User: What shape does this take?
Amino acid sequence: MEISEERLKELVLRALYALEAERKIMTGLRSRRKLYMICACAWNEKYEEFLNEMETSNSYEIYPVIPASWKKLGYEGRLKGCKACAGIVYRCRQRPEDLGDAISLFPVVSRDMLVKTALCISDTFETSWIADCIERGSRILLLLSGLARFSGKEKPAYVNRIMGYYRQVLEYGIEICGKDELAEREAEKEKVHARQAVKTGFLPLQPAASNRGRKRVITASNVESLAFEGVLQLQPEDIVTDMAKERAKYLNIIFK
Assistant: This one.
């Protein structure tokens, strides 16, 4: 069976693409994702517990974001003593440059923080951090064990309203998960990319920053990168921010 020169080139290129894809996937498996663990002003044992439970995980480099006062109080030393702690970041107005590529995790979620996030109020360090993450399309995780619990004495109307706020933050692309799910979700994503590479023979597209959660949040910062020839194809559950709509209008990009 004779193979034309063009066909031979195509086969060689596909093989090279597949090898490069495998190399990138294996490199990704060896590398660890940066994870910012946001701590509230008040100390909570759950911060140290989370780091200790993540000690055997090779998926993340965890950087607790803490108040500077914790250094004198001894809490910083306790966190640094955990093997899973890769370094300490102090709370300040300036956000890390790699925030868009990193994961932000909240081990403790107060009801006040939940409500303000759902209502898009960013007047505290935690809620302003979340607002910046949403704007940059980065992944946000709320730890299931750290959610505020109901006492069981609340009126049904109150419970329904709070549950409505939970549904609202989920619509923003914020995830609620348990500690045991963190590594599993990262591993599953790598498997999907590997299957895609094997099936097509081409390099898998890197997921957009806004597509790291269960739903995409289209923000002003990624409208242009997600559009093709003036059209941005939306998925059924996509969330488009008002600033993204304004940016698209300015760039003459239409949503379809």
